[in-house]
Each structure stands twice: as C-alpha cells, then as structure tokens.
Structures
1.
Amino acid sequence: MSTEVVTNVKLKKWVEELVDFARIPNNVYDSSQIRENAMYLKRIMEEKGIHTEIIETPTNRPLVYGEMMSPNATKTILIYSHFDGVPVETENWISDPYTPTIRELLSDTLIEKLEDLSEGREVDKKALSKYRLFARSIADSKNSIIASLVALDYLREKGIELAVNVKFLFDGEEEVESPSLKDCLNKYKEKFKSDLVISASGETHQSGLPTVELGFRGILQFNIRVVTGLVDLHSGHFGNFLPNAAFQMATLIASMKHDNGMIAIKGFYDNVVPLSDTERSIINKIPRVEEELKDRFGISGAEIKGRSLQELIHLPTLNVRGISAGYVGDEARNIIPSLASAEFDVRLVKGMDPEHIYQLLKSHIMNQGWSVMEYFPTMQEIKDLDKIVVIEKKAGFPATRTSLESTTAQYVIRSVKEVFGEDVVVMPSEGGSLPLYLFEELNTPVIGLPTSNYDCNQHTHNENVRLDFYVRAIETYYSLYRNSINLNNTSY
Amino acid sequence: MSTEVVTNVKLKKWVEELVDFARIPNNVYDSSQIRENAMYLKRIMEEKGIHTEIIETPTNRPLVYGEMMSPNATKTILIYSHFDGVPVETENWISDPYTPTIRELLSDTLIEKLEDLSEGREVDKKALSKYRLFARSIADSKNSIIASLVALDYLREKGIELAVNVKFLFDGEEEVESPSLKDCLNKYKEKFKSDLVISASGETHQSGLPTVELGFRGILQFNIRVVTGLVDLHSGHFGNFLPNAAFQMATLIASMKHDNGMIAIKGFYDNVVPLSDTERSIINKIPRVEEELKDRFGISGAEIKGRSLQELIHLPTLNVRGISAGYVGDEARNIIPSLASAEFDVRLVKGMDPEHIYQLLKSHIMNQGWSVMEYFPTMQEIKDLDKIVVIEKKAGFPATRTSLESTTAQYVIRSVKEVFGEDVVVMPSEGGSLPLYLFEELNTPVIGLPTSNYDCNQHTHNENVRLDFYVRAIETYYSLYRNSINLNNTSY
C-alpha cells in the first residue's frame, strides 16, 4: 500500500472541480443541457492537455471524445462513462439538485468551508466519510468522470509519465440506453480502439470496499398481455363465462419458475458459461452482506435459497417488473378483467444470447397452449382463439465478462490493491446491466471501476457521493495511470 | 294474454312522472340529495293514497316506507327498491344526467313532444323500442319505483280492487351496500312483515324477454396482499435474492383454480344446493344468448366450457377483480416488486355461507405454506416469516332462492305471463348479488322483477331505459296487483 497524503488545499480543488461540473443541469431529455455539459467537458479536458472533440449523434446529444497519447505507448486504455442524468423531481430534494452542497447525511447544515474539514495540512480521509456532496448525477457518474480527469493532473504534479495512451469516451445519453453508441463505435472503430475499456460508473460493493467488476450482466426486457375479450364484464352476470385475464396471466407467470426459484423455461440455463474455480474462489472472498441487507430492507428468505448474494448475481434471473389487471384498492369494482399486462426483465449472464432466450420464452408459452402474437389481436382473432398472449420484445443485449487471469484484469486489480491493500472486492460480474457488450464485440475487455457509495441514491432524490469515496476514486485512477507500464507486462 | 291499450295521453303522463323523479340529483354520497328524493317520494306516494313515512337512519340517508292496506287482505306484498345513484362523471354524458331526455340510442336528437311518438290514440308499443329516456338512475332503479306506483293509479282507473296489502320500502343507500337496512329490518320487524318481497330493480335477460328472478347470488369480497420486503429493489443487484411478490401472487392465484375453470379450494362446492329438476328444466328453456354475447364482447371460449351461461350463473364463482404489483407500461422500471395486491369476489349460490367460504380460502392459502395475517406485518415479521399473505375480508352475504313450486313464485310468474304470454324468462337465480338474504332471514320469499333493458348503462354514463321496457314495467305491476287475489290461492 502506498497511500499519498492529501492536503486540504488539494481536497478543496478536487471538490471544486466536481462541484463546477455538477452545477450544469443534465436532463437527458433536454439535448441543449446535454450539449452544455459536453462543451464544458471539452473545455476542461483541453485545459488538462487532452486532445478533445465533440462527436455529434443523430439524437443531438453529443458524445465527448478525448485522447492523451504517450510517445512510447504500445497499449491504450479507454475510459467510458456518461454525463447525462435522469430528470429530477425537485420537490423531493433537500437542496436544489443543481446547486451542489456538502452536508452530513440527513442533515441540512451546509459545510461552507472545506478547509474546516481538516485542521491541519493533511486531510483525515476517514473523517471525510461523514460528509457527502449532494447533486443530480454526482454519483452517476460525474464523480467518476472528474476523478479520471483530475487524476491526470495529480500524476503530472508528481512528475510521473503515462506509459500508455488514455482515451476518454463520455456518453450523453446512457440513461436512455445509449441509442447512438453502437453506430458511433462502428463508425469510429479505429479512433476508439483500445486494449482495455474501463467502465467508470456505478456503486461499489455494499461492504464499502474498493470494487473491481470483471463483467456485467446482459438484459432482455419484454412485456406480455393476456387478452380474453374486448371489454371487462360484470362479475355477477358473466362470472364463469368470460375467462378472467388476471387468472390466466397468473397461471402463465406461475409456470415460469419452479418452487425453488429456479427458472422453468426449457433450455434457459443451457448456454450459461459457469464460473471458473478461481472466479468462484474470489466470489467466496467477498464479504457477506446478506444479513445486513435483510435487516435494512426487511427481507425474509432469498428467492433462491442456500446461496450467497454473489452466487445469485452470477446466475441469470427472470423478474416480473410489474403486473396490472382490473382495479385494486379504492378503485376495485366487480368486473372480470379482459386484459392483463405484465412486464419482465431477464438478466443474462455470459454465454446467453438475448434473442435465443426470447425464442425459448415464446416456445414455453406456446407449449402451454397459448396463441402467441406480436401485435394486438383483431376482434375476430380474439373470438377464434382460446388463449391469447401478446408479447413485445424491448431492450436486449448480452453479458460481458473478462477473465480474472487476463493481463488487463490483473493490471486493474493490482493497481487498486496497491493503494488500498488486499481488501478489494473483485466481482466476476456485477448484477446490473450495461451495454458494454458493444466494446466486447470489438474484442476489447471491459472492466468496471465503480466509485460511488452504495447508498448514493442514484436516479432518485438527494443523490450524493461520500467525500471519502470521491477521494478514493481519484486515487484509484491515479494508481491506474501510475502503474500503466504494467499493462504491457504479460507475466501477471 | 290480456294486454291493455295504452293511449299516448297516458304514456305522456307516465313518462312525466318518471322524468320528474329523475330530475332530482341522487348522489348516494350526498345525504341532502338523498333526503330530497325521499321527501319527493313521500309526497307523490301520499298523493296516490299510500300512507307513507320517512324512516331515519344513522347514516342520515332515510328510507321511505309506504302502506296501501286492503280491508279484507290476508296476504301482504312488500316492494323493495332504491332511489340513490352512483356519482356521475358529467363529462361523459351526451346530455346532463339530471335533465332527462328522450332520444334514440347514439342520437342527440331530442324527442320534444311525446304525442309525436304515436299519431293515433293508441301507442304502438313495438315502435317505442327505438326511444330511450336518458338520466342517472333512470334504469337503476327509478323506473321500477315509478312503475310500481303508477300501476296503482292504473288499477284504480280500471276500477279494480287490491286483494292484498302492498307495502313499499325504498332504500336511499343501496349503492353503498345498504348499511342501515339490516338494523331497520330488525327494528321494524312487524311493520315490514310480508308474505312476498318483490325486488324492483335490475336488468331483464339479454334476450329482452320479461324476466322473473327467483333468487340472487350472495357475495364475498376480500383482498390479498403478498409482502416480500419493505421496499422494491433493483432487479439487477438483487434479482434471485429479494423474492418477487408479483411472482408469489401469481403462484397463489394459479393455485385457486383447475385448468377447467373449476375452483380448487377444498370444500368450496360442498354445501351448494343443487338445482331441482324443475329448476333445471326452466333454465333449459331460457333463450341461449352465448353466441350473441361472444360476438358483441369479443369473447372466445367460456371459462368453464360445455355449459350454458345460465348453468354457469347457477354455480359459484371465484373472480380476481384486479391485480397490481410494480409498474407496467411507460412506468415500467427495473425493480423487483416487494408488494403485490389482488382483489377478489366470490359469487355464492344457495347453501354457501360467506364466513365458511372465507375460512376455506384462508385454509387453502395456509395449506400452501403461507403465513396468513389479517393486519400488515411488522418489519420483524416480514424478516422472520418466509411467505406472507395479508388478507382482508370485505362485504359478505349469502344467496337467496325461492322455490319455483311455491305459491309466491307461481303467483308472480302467472301474473307476468298473463300480460306477455308464455315467453317469459324464469331464472332460479340471477348472476348478480343483492343483500336480499335480509328478507329471507325473516322467512319471507324474495322474487326479483327486473324491468330495465340489458343495455341500460347502469352505473355509467348515458344510463337509459327503453320506453317499451318502461311501459312493460308498469303493465307488470298492474298485472301483479290485478291478480293479487291469487296470492291466497295455494292450489298453484
């Protein structure tokens, strides 16, 4: 371990850089706001000596691309992150989402003077853990972007040379599934070429330890509607006659899983690439947080019992995101619902193809006697067919996973451990899904370096990043740059 | 058959009596409106020679009670109906719900002069079928009330004497489950005593034929919530870990029915009183409307196949009125729902006790390993228990059914047939539920005489009654009064 001393003057500067960026509204649905963020990034990146350009997209939400080339480099790292944010519901925030403030959690006392955080010259990093910076996108993912940039200044201050090329690709529409990214990656294949993509986004493991993610689950989203008639009918006059769409939907959903929580779709698990022995061993080293989570969220048993949360994250899921049919609560009335809707997401692990899984799902439904349609049936079809399911496929992309034994994985893990010691969480895959398969399709390994605290409230009100996590983020990128010579080293 | 000639002068008077009553707003949630209706009824009933009183209730929505005693009567008929209405959503009405207008269906042309409906002295009753009177509660049930009253005038005009006592009990809060009725019936047991209760409400059979209902299904309403945690969690980070409440609910609901639509709750059908051979034979005579209904509502197969709609109405039902969990449609998001709600109604037939059925349902759920609670669980309970169902019982009352062979049933059926011929639909029970068991508990048979057209839009916008149905209603009560001597005749 070789932690550097951080002075409160430096801390103040780092915080100011993040605050200045977080001040700029970044609603992903407002392309002019996205452009303003992009222009701001270009300016500060150029100030740091990064050759930067704005890459236009058909959605009018530009990407920001930057290069810091090193004369003798043979390897290249590309840092991918995003600067757009989900819309804010201002009324729920303690302070304005675009007026970043430092506070203790659940306190409305502002910390006006960062110098006060530490009396002496040296910041007590542990003491920083009480303080959080509140603003939209400060956790997801502006802190990661700024950390990756100021770490370059830090490196320069220390007089250390980069041994690799570093490229930056900052997305302005990640919150709406990055609709322009795929075409851009194809169009600028050479420009974006690298040996390692760092995904600079996300939350660390719930234990709070520094975290390296070697993979991301893929996803398949779809919805299903069951149609038994054109109108809801009175349950007294037509009970036993009009088939109940809510009941039919319940039967269909119930058929999809076994009692033990495992998925009953034939072939669902067939192509899953199992974890290697070493991957399994690093999973077993990750601190167990299950009991803490159960206490915190009021959860009883796990859906699939007898396995750790980490094991469960490395299995695929089939999740019902929502069901709706008829009316409940005060709205309840004596009708037979003729329409039931359900939304699903499937989390895919390495080896699973979204389209193949979608076909397996359709087969499962058909095998139970349903007529499966991809459009809303006509009145004639409703009358002629006995059990009708309308299915609609939404997003879908596969999982990624970089081998633990690879040079790239070892380089990243070592860099993090060098600063923070052996207590680093290495996850073969995180539970969430990011469309990073796009890079993997270009044969580039992708590794995630989440830097935000687990309780950062991303996507909701009072989004925040803990100051100690932010400092750790900077130190992480600093170590990555400082050790970049090792990316050439194949002896790991 | 002995149909009387109706002059257009008489028709005009009848329509005016109904229109004047339908003009008075009657939102069941506005007790002053209910009182205004009650006072109006009292006045017109007294004008017709009925001794009338207002009976106060704890809910401030009075009942109206009237008596027309006959000197030598040994039997008494009580006519029960209601004059309150469900709230109106004015914007959906073609005309103001409390400004009754006569129009053809789907036309906005008013019929200003009723005289125009018939050029000659005699009204062509068949031609009346084109015209409908639109107003809130005109179908449910103001037309029945006015018909039962003006038929008394009609009888007097013809110089015919009543052979029985006739009592009227008009409820002002039927749309909110008649909360005061039970106590009133007990309090005024002697006053309300009768040999036959006529339920003057509802829609005739879909064939449009005059209809006599010898029974009503009972009902049991309850809701169920499945709780797997205190908050919804991210489906990527916690999939396979947080049990999905929507999934658990689906499994629970699916367990309640067999694939053939029959209910899988143990003991559910045990106490059902089967239809007698004669009841079965009158069911078989009822016109089959299944194909017409399927065309009209876009329905494929019946939930329980191979039986007529009439047979299905004489079986109990278990209906899911609604399900809700998580989010669907534009609101859909990647969460695991920790709460799922479902609303149910059970239609009970003769022999079934609502409380007993409720206990069977709870046993069914418990037998599948659920912890069944009647309150929302504490955080500790959610953590300690594996599968939690919160169940809440709502309304519940048993079915009624008067024997086809009884004097009362035969008297009513004969009275109707005398005017309209043999083509009368006699239903051992209708599909809907009315709390008429309260009368049956007083050992009084209850028979329903629905008078509104099947497409009357009761409870929704553009509620209407067809003019020919209204005239038929008056003729029905007229025949009932004229034949009242037969109620003493036990030789039917």
2.
Amino acid sequence: MSAALPPVIVLVRPQLGENIGKAARAMLNFGLTELRLVTPRDGWPNPDAGPASAGADIVLAEAEVFGSLADAVADCTTIYATTVRKRGVMKPVLTPEAAAREVHASAGRSAYVFGAERSGLETDDVALAHAIVTVPINPEFASLNLAQAVILLAYEWSKGIALASPPEVPLDPPAPHAELEEFIQHLTRDLDASGYFVPPERTEATLRTLRTALTKTGWSHNDIRMMHGIITALGRTPRPR
Amino acid sequence: MSAALPPVIVLVRPQLGENIGKAARAMLNFGLTELRLVTPRDGWPNPDAGPASAGADIVLAEAEVFGSLADAVADCTTIYATTVRKRGVMKPVLTPEAAAREVHASAGRSAYVFGAERSGLETDDVALAHAIVTVPINPEFASLNLAQAVILLAYEWSKGIALASPPEVPLDPPAPHAELEEFIQHLTRDLDASGYFVPPERTEATLRTLRTALTKTGWSHNDIRMMHGIITALGRTPRPR
C-alpha cells in the first residue's frame, strides 16, 4: 500500500453536469474520492451529475468548487495538466503510467487537472502545472472524452496502491502551490515597479516564461521564504553602479 | 512495434446500440478496429451506434455479426473473457496488463470477449475462454460499464505498439554548470551590496543554502538569462516602500 496521498481530480470549467457525474464514477471505481471543480459552467450542485455518477454520490457530495485553478490546487505540491494536444509550453510530458509512479513517490499532494469537454485546458492553466500528462492515442482518431481521460489516469494510479514499497520522502519537499503563487505575485509586483515589463504588450508572455522557470524549481517552503527575502533585499538599497 | 495481430473485440448479446458505438470509439482511440457482435439484442446495423461512436464509423461499418460466441472466435487462438465478477470456473485470472503482454507475444489471433451491459458473460461463454481478464477495481464501488472495460483493455494493449510512446517534446535542457555559477556570483555580488548578508558570520551558511536552492531549479540557458535580467531590474530602481 502506497503511503502517498491519492491525487486530487480537478475539472476546469466543466460544461455538462452529466460529465461531472461520469468523472466521479470513473474516480470511485479506482478508489479516488476527492473532486474539485473550477467554475463549472452551469453552477454547482448540478442535478444532471447524480444520475450519471451511477452511485458515486459521495464523490459529488464532497466535491468542492473554486474560482480559479490556482485556488483549487493551492495545497498541492505537484500539478499534472492532462492534455492530448501539443502545446508551446516547455514542460515534461509524461504517460499516465509515469505520472502515477511520481504521484506514488511524492511526499506531498498531487493534482490531476482536466480541461473543459471540448476546448481542454488553456495555456494559462497548463502554465501552472509541473508536467503534462498525455494519454498516447491513435493519431488518426484521437477522441477521448473527459470521463475516459479520468478513468485512464485513475486506473493507472490504482495499480500503485497494491505496491508495498514505501515512498521515497525528499528531505525538503516542494512547497504547496499557494506559496509559490504568492512568491510569483511578490516578484511580479516588484518587477513591475522597477520597470521590468517593457514593452507592456510582451508582459503576458514574459510572465508565462517566468512562471514556467519558477514552477520547475521544486522549491520548498524554506527556499521560497529565502527567495522572498532576496527580492526584498535586492530592491531595498540603491547601489552605486 | 509488436508484430502480433491486434486482438478482436467481441461483444456478446450487447443491448444498446449506443453502447456498441461507444465501444467502437473506445477501440479506435487505441488503434483497434475489428469488432464482432454475437446476437445483438436489437439487430444490426443499429441506428443508435453511429452517433455514439463519435466518428469511429469504420469500426461499425466493418463489424461482423455471429450467431454464437463459438462462431465469433472460430479463427482465434486465444480467448480472453472479461469479467469483474468471480466465477466458479477454474481459469487463470489476468490483469489487463498481463493479458496485453500475452497478446503481444502470441503468434495467433486473440479475442477479448465482453458480456452484456447488465448481466455480463454467462458461465458457458466463460467456459470457451483460455483465461479471464479482470480489471482490479474498488471492491466497494465496482461500476465499470461496457465501453469503459473496452477502453481499459484497448489502452493496455496499445502500450505494446508504437503509438504508446509519448510525443518527444524538445525540453529546454538545464544550462551547463558554469552558467549557473556565473549567475550565483552575480546574485551574491548584488545581495552583498544590498546588505543581505547580516550577520557576516552567517554568510557562508546562507550562501550554501542559496546554492542548494538554485542548483535544484533545473534552469536552462534561457531561464538563467532571464534571471540575470530580473536581478538587475530589481536593483535598478529605488522603489517607494
């Protein structure tokens, strides 16, 4: 039995209540119970979810709703964005198998993040993630729906709960996402004040690049505390140049 | 690339055309195309199958209908009966993973046989099989539908063929150590100038902690260039506080 926490399933902007129900059913079949919803289109609770869950009511009853993906994964240390499409984002790409191995070896909380039924995850959603999980699929017929993607990832994860090997616990585990987010906000404010974002129309792309670089650091709570201090120190004293 | 033939998918007494369509969709996602139907309840073709297949029409168009399971698997050398329920039948019980390995190693034709939506396979159906395939599932919530069982077996089979490798994304590799070193020197100089190293006798330990945090970032050449710019920007302009 893996001692690692089961992954949280996060559905970003899901459209149909029926699909939320099917995702809950897929989860519970493989022992996953924690569902988080980011701004579901038709609000929550949704009367169409229950019948589609085929009895996975406990998952729906305990589902939590968040206003943003960042909020939904605030307590997670490793975030996996599931997408079948190629992105212009420089992140490691894992199979469901490889991701499951990482989740079982992690000392923190992991999140599997899924996009909306038709459109999938936005670039900004993917930017939050540490890695991308892609289900290898027939390139001539790639038609995996939301619940199917959930079931494949849940199934791969469930294989690891039979494993007897204890997780490798890193000495200083990565900080929860909320701490990194706060640091990114701090840095962005200070950079903005110092005139870093020039020209302004490049700001969004620059921020995304910066976020990617900071997301892959694996910084712990203590690392991030130190980095706050560094930013503050660098801005504090005008230095002779 | 496995040289073995892909397995045939056999649905025994399927009830709803919609579920036949969903099974076809599940198959084609993972490169399986040969579907056989044993006495489908509502006959064949079934107008409900097409819409549910989400474009997997080729699988449906080429589906064959048989009067008995024995006829449907007449050309197959190894027959796998999928069931989640315990049977009083003395057959080897395999996971989808183990069955897929056997299929890839087989010189003959393999069949994955699935029962009707509600009732599953009859004892006489299972008696024809060489082995039973069971998806390990949450004992307190075992609610896998037909298409989900098909997709899990098709997915496991697909790992053995070429499409099972994730797309190679050119990641931004970590920079050579000298670049990181240069960055650490830059940061150290600027922090020193801003009075960060207080008290002085802690400087060495602080530098070691800082170096550890920066060494684990995995930053690329481009990341490090950006970080040089960030340090310079933060120190450039005295900001109102």
3.
Amino acid sequence: MLLKSSLIRAVSQTKGVITRGYKAKAKKIPEFTQDRYQVSRKSFAAVTDSDVSQFEKTIGSKYVVTDSEELLTHNVDFLKAVRGNSKVVLKPGSTEELSQIMKYCYEKNLAVCPQGGNTGLVGGSVPVFDEIVISLNRMNKIHSIDEMTGIAVADSGVILENLEKSANEHGLVVPLDLGAKASCHIGGNVSTNAGGLRVIRYGSLHGSVLGVESVLANGTVLDLMSNFKKDNTGYHLKHMFIGSEGTLGIISKLAILCPPAPRAFHVAFVGLPSFDAVLQTYLSAKRQLGEILSSCEMMDKDALAAAIQHFGLKAPIDDYPFYMLLETSGSNADHDQEKFNSFLENGMEAGHIVDGTITGDPGKMQEIWKLRELVPVALIEDGYCFKYDISLPLRQFYEIVPVMQERCGSLAHRVCGYGHLGDSNLHLNISCSEFTPEIYKRIEPYVFEYTSKLKGSVSAEHGIGFLKTKYLSYTKADNAIDMMKEVKNLMDPKGILNPYKVLPLN
Amino acid sequence: MLLKSSLIRAVSQTKGVITRGYKAKAKKIPEFTQDRYQVSRKSFAAVTDSDVSQFEKTIGSKYVVTDSEELLTHNVDFLKAVRGNSKVVLKPGSTEELSQIMKYCYEKNLAVCPQGGNTGLVGGSVPVFDEIVISLNRMNKIHSIDEMTGIAVADSGVILENLEKSANEHGLVVPLDLGAKASCHIGGNVSTNAGGLRVIRYGSLHGSVLGVESVLANGTVLDLMSNFKKDNTGYHLKHMFIGSEGTLGIISKLAILCPPAPRAFHVAFVGLPSFDAVLQTYLSAKRQLGEILSSCEMMDKDALAAAIQHFGLKAPIDDYPFYMLLETSGSNADHDQEKFNSFLENGMEAGHIVDGTITGDPGKMQEIWKLRELVPVALIEDGYCFKYDISLPLRQFYEIVPVMQERCGSLAHRVCGYGHLGDSNLHLNISCSEFTPEIYKRIEPYVFEYTSKLKGSVSAEHGIGFLKTKYLSYTKADNAIDMMKEVKNLMDPKGILNPYKVLPLN
C-alpha cells in the first residue's frame, strides 16, 4: 500500500510542477483579440459602476476584481494567443451567488465568460471583448467521495490535482489526467470534455460524469446531479453541458465516477524505426496488455528534441525516428511486469521495437513521463506555437506532419507530432519565433482542410473555443450546426454565455 | 485463440437461447393499453388507405404490414403488459426510406412508434393507440469493424448478438451484453441507453457510442457519426438520442467502440450469509480483482428459487440467503485465476463468503450464468410479474425487498431482488398469478416514493417508456422536466415521435 500511494503522488507531483514551473515565466502579452482576429462586438450592455456596486452587494467587494494587474491574468490565455478586455472579474462563492449574478446579467443583457483554471488552448476561457469574467476558483469544495461506489461529488472549481489527491486517499483515482492538472478545474475539464492521458483506459468524461448542476443564462439552477452509475429517467440533458464550453450553462457542481486506484504502475519508453512499427506496437499493446494498458503515447524525434533542449533532459535511449511511452497499471505488480516484459520481447523480436527501457520505480517513471509531458510546453518555449489537436484515421495518423513540414519550410522552427495514439488523437505542433500573419496563413485553413479530407475531427480534445469557430464546419454537417444554434437559442436566448465561442460567428 | 472464441460463443449461445426459448411460449394477450391505463388519444391523424398506398410506393408493398396476426406481435410488448392498436407496420430498408416516411408522416400529422427488437420492459416499444409502427429490422447491415481502432459501424436494426459475433471475429467484444441479446437491436439498445451485464467493466453507452445518425420528426437526417474516440467540435448532440427512447429522433446508424476481446474468463458462484457480507464482498472484488472484474451480480434466495423451479436447474452450492455471481475476464488465464482464487480465499477467511464454486470451463460457466440469466424470465413464468429496476444507495440497496414483501403479503407469489450490484442497480420483482388492480395499487406509487426518499432513480436502465411517465418527477427536478419538454418541442414540435412516452402525459 505504501508503494501505491507514494507512487501515485510522485507521478502527480511531476505533472504538477511542469505546469506551475511554466506558468511562472514571463511571456509577451499578445495584442487584443478584437484587433488580431477582427471580430465585431455584439450589442451587449457594457458594465457600469452601478453594476459593479450590485455585484459587490451580491458576493462581497473582496470578490469583485477590477485591479488591472489581476484583470490581465484573467484576460490573457495560457498560450498568449488571445487577449480580452474585461473590466471586472467576479468570484462567486456558491451556486446561489452564481445564480444571482446570472439572473442580474440576464436582466441587464451583460455578457459573461466563465473561467476555470484558464488552461484552455483554443481561447475559450478568456473574454473576447469586455465580457464579465466569472471565475469559479472559490467554488472549490469536495463534497463527498464514496469509497464503495467510487463516486466523487465536487464543486466545479476544485483543482484536478486536489481531487486526484483526495480520491487517492480513498483508494480511487480520477478517470482523467492531463498536464495542466495543477491548475485546471474539474468543472472546466467537464465543460470542455477534456481528454488527456487516461482516455484509453477509462474512456471519455461522457461516460465518467454521472451528474452536473448547471446555472443557466437566466440564473436558473438546473439540478442534473445523480449519485448513480445508472439513471435512465428521461433525456440525458447533462451531456449538453459536457463539452459545450460554458456556452449553454455554467457547471457549478458535478458527480464523477472514480475507478479503484491501481496498485502497481510500470512505464516503458521505446524507440521505433518507422510509423508503421508504431502502429503495430499499438495493436500488440492493446491485445497483449489488454486491461492493464493505461497510456499509449507516441512522439516523433523533433518533439522529443524540444523537451530535451529546453528542459535539459536526457533521453534514456538512443535517437530514433519515433518514440512511444507505454504505461500499465493494475492490481498485481508481478502479473503486470510479466505481461509487459513479454510484450516488449515480442515487439523486439518482430523488429517493431528497436530499443527501450522499462521501469516500475517511481522516480524513474517520473523521469520518463517528463519526456512526454514537457513536450507541449517546450514547444511554446521556441517562441510561439501553433497547436492543433486533431483526430485522424490511425493508418494516416502521421502523414500530415511531413506535409506541414514542407508547407511551412523555413517559416517554422519545428513541425512535429506527438499525442494519444490510443485515441487516434494527434497533437500537431508548429513552432516559430513569433506569431506572424504569414505563417498563420500558411497553416490555416490548410491544416483543417487536410483533416476534413480524411474525415478527421478538427478538434479531438481542446474544443472549438474562440480560435476554431470558423472551422467547425470542416467536421460537422450543416444541419448539425443548425441544430446546435437552435439548442443555444433555446437555452441562452440572449446569447450572453461565453459569446463568440464554439458556434460560427456569422 | 480457440479457447477464447469457443468460450465467447458458448456464453452467447446460452444467453440467446434463454430469450428465444421464452419468447416462443404463448402468453395471455393483455387488454388494450388505452383501457387498462385510461389514456386519452392525442389529435394525430388516423392512417388512411391513401397513406398506406403512399407507404407502399415509398418502401414496397412487401414491407407495409397490415396483416392482423403479424400486427399483434408489434402491438404487444415482451412482458404482455401493454397493447397498442396500430393498423400498419412499416419496414424501411434504408435511412433514405426512413427519412421519406418521416417526412410524409410529419406533413400528415401521423404519429409513429419506432420499434427495434421489442424487448423493452416499460412499454416504450409498442404503440399506445394507433401510431404507425416503424420497425428497424430490415436495416441490419454491419458496415465496418476496425480491428485496430475497435470501432464498429452498424445500422440500428442489427441484432446485438450478431454484432457481438462479428466483433468477436475481429478480436473485439461489444461493450454491452444483456439477456435479450438474441432479439434486441443495437439501435434499440442505444435509444434506451441499455445497461446490462458489462457496465461495471466497460461503462455506459454514453461513453461507448461514438456517433449516431438520426432521422428527425420532419425527415431530416442528422449526421452525428464519428469514427473517432475524441471529437470536441461543438455540442455533443448525439447524447440527446442516447436514452431518449425514440422520442427525439429515430437512430438509423451508429458507431460504437468495441474493446479487445478478453482471452480468459472465470466465473464464481458464491453463497453469503447476509447482505452486509454481499457488500463487503463487492468492495473486496473491486479492490482485489480490479481491472479484470467484468460482472458482479447478486440475487436473493427467492430469485434463485424461481429459476430453479421453472427451468429445472440445479444450484451448485447449498442454500444461503444471498448469492453472488462474479466474472473476471482478462488477457492471461493464469494471472486471472491466481487473483480470483486469492480473492475467494480472503472472502472465506473473513467469513463473508460461506461457500462457492469457481470455474474457467466454458460449459460450467454457461451453467452458472444460467442461474442468473433465467431469473428475470422465470419470474414471469409465475403468471404476471411487476418489474422495477431502480438505482439505490448501496448501503440501503436491499432494504426495499423485505418492505415490499410485508406490504404485498399474500397478494404476491414472490417478492425478490437481484441485480447489478456493481452499478447500484436493483431489480425488484414482484410476481403473482395475474395482473390485478389491487396488487398494482399496493405496489405503485409506493415503490417509487420509497426510491425517491432514498434519492434513488426510479429507472436505472429500463427507461421511462409508457409505464413510468407519471413517476419521472420522483427522480427528476421540475425544471429538468421542463427543459426536457422544451427540447422535445424543439426537435419534434408536432409530438409525432413515440407519443405518450418518456414525458409526463399532462
């Protein structure tokens, strides 16, 4: 038992440190979104002093932020790609306060931008103009964790890592893990249907989230909570709030099913000669590691090189065109190790795996995970990074990387691919010294046209947010987009919830 | 490999035979629903000869059924609890034909009742009055099964067992298994968000179904298909069709994620002295069997007695107040057996498990599964059976059974409980010689009031259908029901899709 909990903690801490370490660095503040992307403000009311006084009465003046320095952290996103111009951030402390804020905003036609940990990558979590930011970070109570059923009930502002720690104390794990875990909120994860590293094992949040409480545009509190895995009483409305990025309601509370914590982890890092070998290794892992496979990540040599260069890491094996990080987690260390060793031996015999290292040691696993987890942030360190997370047919998963390398030529510093192979989810990253319209136009919309041609998804997990609204139609049928608009109109007739996001602007 | 496929087939066949065997038996035809439950017909048009001619032109006269004997099988449900009075059954052969039918019905204000395998238990799959039955059974093509990604694409009318067989041939399993698998359609399963025996391992259909194609009330074909595990492009509308029981659209096609087929199965049947011992055993199973636990079923002595009596089975162990059936499935038989044996030994040492048998032999596992799978049908053999499937807090899971025993007294033949313990899902069954208003009133609404008091769900997996519409409010908040009505009105403004179902009638 000691091994288990110390191990989980070790892994969690690594992941946490990565994000925190990165966020502390000063980066260039981008120009205003309205200028860079030429958007027109919709006819919402502008916040007045009288509105601010009313908010102070409702939630207390301490929680109504108008200080320009603090405002900036809420107006700019993690990637420094977008910048809003909000004049006020509200920090409600309860569902009731959140409901009162929304009721007031609805009556006054004031637009709002709900914000969790502000770790989103598509500009969904910051305002576009002067929308009021509603930060959920004070709504951070874990209400209950039931060891027997595995169900955790938490406010939406609980930081993912904190929920994970509490779950661990009950012998459980949160079925979601991602690099930003030290900052992101579970409510934000659910609002954006976050994916991350454990989807291959525990599936998507649509399967794990059992209930949500959501505050609608007009302040109505919609109670769709459930303490049960199964509840077939009428329409499954909660799914409307999972992945709609705060445009249909603001999730205030949720129930999530947490699986039993594994007792043993093992991690392997292997080098492969070709993408075909990567695919064969994935297929073998699914078959031979079956129920204990908990991560199946790939990255190319350029992706790994970025992490090594910017964070002074050392690769545990020689240079290869492709690398994979495989993780198993199970209830018996000996059994898992036997399966893992046998899988690796078979892979080496078949020539798919050329070199590799496997470990069950917490410290060493942590080192290996760093190689994968630091890639996304390392690429931002290049200067500016265009990040695409697309779903593609596995057999054509990697084709787009060399295509984009050729297309960007010397405009790009690095064009590389990594991602969640087990979910057909490629993170295509193109880094350069700074954002220029020239490289932007070289990349978009081409990258989405290419994805669309392969019937892929233009957003596997990051969402549409602000940055991808005009590309929604590359994946979704016209009548599906029409239906989305009708649902939006039904639930938020004034359009005050996170405007300019998800749905096409025109 | 031989072991794996022969084993899967053996188990599937058992389950299939049960349903087929049962359905062949003649049962008393119930009175019309409109008389027994006193419902008022809504002002839809009635089908005319001219409508029938039009349907014959659209899909061919062979597929427009007006023969009274065949109509009866579509008008009466599996439980013989409800009976509609439809004059015509349509069997479209494609999405295009289905779309044309709906377009016509929408224009003419003709109500329809979509029907899959007609194995539902809440009267959702048969008409209440003279709604046109739309049978999906000709739309039964499996379009593709991708061994590498595990994604199967199938028409909605594919019989679950057939999809399972095809998945097995590709080294995969369908993440859903239930007693009616030889008759039920995958489209019906998705429309009703069916649960069944594998939820504990593979989760709910909201997690497994990756995409649906749905024909709306006005004939619009809404393409929400996806060939990917991850697709975060806009609202996740497909979930509106999962579990809405054909009242928002008719699912015509779907994509479902199939996990790798396990290579080894083991089944244990154990006797326990108390319900507390059942709970402790469940908790230990979750912890000790972890990732290989694939079923965790419980039943009380009266439930088992029904199966033994009506089907001449023999219990493999002595009489105990409670029984559990536990199944593991994994990728290494030796590992699984070692874990399972150790778990059983620990349970016996702790005194939770008094007696038991474990096997990995396909024939013996089949015999054990029969003990559980024949319970639901055996209870119908008593004459008439009131079936409730409710979600309850695990610690109070069984309390309702003795309460109902006392309440029904000699009016009931048997009051017993069994179900999916791992999902907090109790099947409370009350059998009697025939339906009488007296026992009906003794049971309802009391059973739902009791469930509501414990904040349980009045329908864990069967759905609301026709029989439970008036009990929806026992689980769902008023404003959630209002929102459901608004969604219904948005997607089916004339209310022609499966009327009198899911939403409260008044």
